[in-house]
Amino acid sequence: MGENLSKEINLNIKEFKIDLLKNGGDPGVLIPLLQSAQDSYGYVPEKVINYISEFAEIPAAEIYGVVTFYSQFRLKPLGKYIVKVCEGTACHVNGAKSIVNMLLNELGIGVGETSDDGMFSLLSVACLGCCSLAPVIMINEETFGSLTPDKVRKVLKKYRQK
Ligand code: FES
Question: Is pTM, for the whole model, over 0.85?
Answer without folding.
Answer: no
